[in-house]
Amino acid sequence: MRLFLLALSLSLSFVATARADDCAGAISAYRRAHGLPAVRSDSRLGAVALKQAQAMAASGSVSHSVGGNFPARVAGLRKSRAAENIGAGFLSFSEMLKQWENSTGHRENLLMAGARRVGVASVSNPNSPYRKFWAMVITD
């Protein structure tokens, strides 16, 4: 049983990493199409995004403040610039990204000059009409 749990744990870690890299790759492709450099997946940013997505899923609301004040949530990262995109109701990252691309403020965050790192997370809540909550944090 112990070996099975260890194998399952490693498998889940790989899936989470691959997904994070896929999200960063999709954001990078959008940035490159607009003449900007790619971004890399960052696990610390992913953790900040995950806490926000968890807070939104738990509350059933889409809000930048439900998980706490954004500047306070990213203060420990010691970055000069940081931005956050949130959303809900889209089951795939490609759907969520398309929505962000079509929204002025979210698009500005995706295309933030000097951005180098990104973290993306989603959390499901089947009891919410939104079903899935997304958060993205991007920094220099």
UniProtKB/TrEMBL annotation:
Key words of the record: Signal
Pfam family, one: CAP
Keyword Ion transport carried by entry: no
Signal sequence range: 1-20
InterPro entries hit by this protein: CAP_dom, CAP_sf
Start and end residues of each SCP domain: 26-135
Source superkingdom: Bacteria
Protein name: Cysteine-rich secretory protein family protein
